Structure formats: C-alpha cells, structure tokens
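DM from R.C. (forwarded with permission)

"hey, sorry to bug you on a friday — could you get me a structure for this? deadline for the figure draft is monday and I only need the backbone to look sensible"
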Amino acid sequence: RLKRRGAFVLPVPLLVLAGLLVSETSGAVLAMAAAAAEAEESEQVDEQVDGIDAAIAEAEEEAGAGEGDDAEGENLEEALQDGVDEEELEQLEAQLAEGEDEGPGDEGAVDENPPSEEDDDDHLQGVEVEEHLIDAVEGSLRLKRMLSRDEEEDGPSAKKQKLSPEAEAKKMKVQKLVVKWGLQTDATVRHVCETCSVEELDTMLKSSYVPDKFNQWKPPSEMLARYLCDLRERHMPGGAMCDAIAAFKHRFRMDMSKDKLLRSLSHKDLRYVLTYYDGSQELEDLVREAAVIDAVDDNTTATALPDAKGVIALGRFQRLELIDPLADAAVFGDANLTFAINLAKHREALGHVGRVIATTFEDLDTLRERYKEIDESISTLEEYTALVYHCVDCTRIAIDERFKTMQGSFGAVYYNFPHSGAIQGFFDGHPIVNWRHENLMRLFFRALRSFVKPGGCVKVASNMGAVGVRYSYIIGSAMENEFVHVETVPFMEWHLHRYGRSYGDKRDIHRRPDAKNNQSYNAQAAERDMVYCFAYAPSGDMLGTQHIRMPPTLKTLKHCRDGPFKNLQGTARERLAQQLHHRFVTEVSGTHVG
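My reply, with the result:
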C-alpha cells in the first residue's frame, strides 16, 4: 500500500542498523562535548591557579619587604669593608635610626595589621587571676573571647579585617587548594585549610592528595581533617603500647643500636641514664658512668631492685601505680567517682599520706539524676579523707578558688577517657566539633603546669583509635607543655583499671556502668585502651602563647552542608547554626552541656 503511494520503505534490518549508527554518532558527539567541557573547566581552573600563584608571590614579596632593615644593616657592613668614609657611614646609620623611630607608616596612614587575637588582652579583662597563673588560663579565656567576638562581628555591618602580608599569602594558598580540589563552595573544607599551618598547606600543594568528594560515609572536610592528623602523627611514637625505652628512643631520635644497648641495662643503670641524658653527651659514656656508681638503699621505691632488668622494672612502676606517697593526687572528669574511690583505697593500702582530690564536671543534682549511688560514693571518699569538688573545668582550675592553695602540690594527676561531649548529627572526628577535643587536651596540660610538682606524673587513659580525643592530641599537647612522654601502658594491665566506667552524659541514666571485664561500652575494644604516662620536666624557660585549634565561625556554621545541616535551608539552618554556636560559647565558659 505504501509503495502505491510513492513512499520508499527500507527493510527492517536496515532500519535497525541505521538506528545503531545514529546512536553511536550521538554518543560520540556527547562524549566529545563532555571532553570539551572538561577541558574548558580544567583550563579555567589552571587560569585561576595561575592567578592565585601570582597573588601568593606578591603577598610573600610584601611579607619579605619587612626584612629591609636587615638588608640595610648588611649594606652598612659591606660599605665599611669597601672603605666608605666614616662621615658617610654615620649619616647612613642616622637615617636608619630615624626610620626605626618613626615606626610603620607616615602620619595619617591606615594600620593594615590590627592586633591579632594572639596579642589581644581583652579576654583577660574582668577576670581575677594571679599574675603567675595567667599563663595557665589565658588560652581558655582567649578561646571564649574569639567565639564571643565572632558572634558580635557577624552580620552585614561587620567590618572586614585587614590582613598582614603573611596572612594574605596564607589566604591565597588556601584559595589555591580549594580551587585545585574543586571545593570552592565547601565552607567546612575552607575552614579546615584555614586552621592549617603554612607548612601543612605547602605540603598539600606539592602533593597529589585530593579529598574524596564522593565518599558515601564521610564528607570531604572530615576526610581532609583525618589526612592532616595522619600527617602530624607520622612524627609521633604511635598510639599503641610503648615501653620506657621506646619512648626515650623516640624523644632523642635514636637508632636500633642504642635500643639494644638500653635494653641490656639493669634497673639502676637504666634509671640513671633516663634521668640524666639530655642529648649533649654520648650515650655510651653515660652508660659507663652509671655502671661505676654504687646502688643506693634509701628505702624508696625508685632504688628498689637495682639489679633487676631495667625496662621490666620501670614498666612495673607505671602499672602498679607507685606514686609519690606525700603529694596530693587529683582526678579530673570522674563522673561517678568510682575511679577516685579505687585510687583512695590503693593509696591507703600503700600507706600514703597525700590527699585524693576527686572532681566532676557536672553539678551534684545532675549526678544524682544519673547515678543513684553518688551520695554513697561521696561518703566513701570522705571516709578516706578525700576532697570532692563538683563543677570543675580542668582547663580553668587557675581561676577556681578551691584550687588556689594547691599550686605545685600535685604529685599525680589522672584524666580517664577525656571527651568534650557528643553533638547530635556529627561524628567526633568532624572538624565542626573536633576542635573542642583537641583544645581540651591543649588547655588541660597548660593548666596543669602551675599545679604539678616537677617530676610529678600525669596519666590520661584513652582508646588508641579514638577519633574524638586522638592519641596525638594527648601526646602532642603534653610535649608542648613540657610533660615528657615516658610510657604507654595497656589499660587492662593497669592496677587501677577495675572501676565503673561511664559515658559521662545523660546516656548514663539508662546505661549503668559495668566494671566487670571492663564492658562499659558497646563499640570499644578493651585491648585497644591505653594509659598514656607523662612526667613533668619544666625547663624554667617561659613558654609562648598556648596554640589552640581555631573554632568554626558563625558564618562557617551557617554554610555547613554536613551532618544535621545537610537537609536544612533558610531560617531553620540559621537557627541551628546559632544554637550550635551558643553551645560552643557555653562549653568554653566551663558549663557542662549534654
């Protein structure tokens, strides 16, 4: 019928073949278009990176301009060597001195380097603290001030702060990284980069690392934060068991030949070497010196069993909790006080006369709601002449009146499984909340400097795989504040490990602590729990300002796309950001939340 109407009809096989050809041609066209788009995007990124490189070079050049004074001084020396007249030399020196007296800029110039948070003392105003204790609490107050100021400056009327050339160069490097990764719109990734050091930024710029943008479990910001932690932990002894020799060898970067020598020493000789070696002398010379010194029997535990195998004897000291019998021992963050009871009984059995100071972060009413036996526990501690304090923030004990007379009195300090509190919707490793855990350890060890005796021990128990308070936060914060890492002991080998562990938050109302077999947590392997042991060894030098991990700004919270923010828009997103920011301010003020 179609033929009679003059239509030309192809056979069915030819029609199928024609369809396949059209399909292949369309696919090829689409592939070419995608490749062209990708090439164009890559070219745009390259152009942006080139522009950022130029901006970084310019900023670094401006930052280096401040070294002109040193260059002028070198020119003066060169001129003197070349035989310049003394009068001319005096004129050059006078010009240089005038330049120093005038200071930065001419009259009416704008100050492009306003005081930073590091130099700002506003956070110390209104706080009554003795001058020698300011260093112990300054970091905590500075952190609170930063969060409060962030809330004040948020909004359309906020003034944009001018940056120094160094800060501008760092900002450009951050921009280059996020452009390179294609994450320019991810505010949390940008926040993580901004909290990095310049060295870490340079390392990432030179490497081929790119955060996984398509991971179904973790967002790019959390992957990036984990990568940075791994970079830092490469220079640490590790979170697993570490005996006294391994810790000592890592501290002084010794090779395996020294390891073999140290492990052959007796208790007396090894203790002598660990006490007096400072890296300035040959280890072998100190070993020979230790061998000729006679053993001293002064009726103390440190001189007991002088001929025993050194590394085993020292390990027993840490495991059996043979601490200073005369000094006080403080326990922080002991929610249900069962560990403090354990310690008090242990000290009485050994005949110690030092007190036990047991503290909780929560108030007594909250404890009574969570732990029905809390009043009985307090009575038990008082029978052992222990002091029990509530609402104690271990990072702010320098401004706590109850600790005013305890400076330099602690011979031992304990903090078991530290945690800054869970925030619903975020895992502990997410950078929006993880900074709290890191700063907890930094500020804790800085606060202890004014209260621990030289040679006093500090022990922090934690899981080696914890993603909240990572082992590197514990060891790194201790080392920054002159607490020497002496050993890492498996928690189950510790004499004081049998106590009723708890979550330390409202979950304890329904989940009772269980000390049997250490089964207090559902998802935590007991064999991975460790006790990180430190000894306070102050050098006498003034330490710099305590470094703290910068918290996310209110603006970053409003633009966060992770966790509970993922499906929120508009007013709901802004309300949650305000609530979370308010919680951060409350927590750093020493008030427990959760």
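R.C.: lifesaver. Residues 67-84, 92-120 have pLDDT under 50 and may be disordered.
me: no worries. The chain has 20 helices and seven strands.
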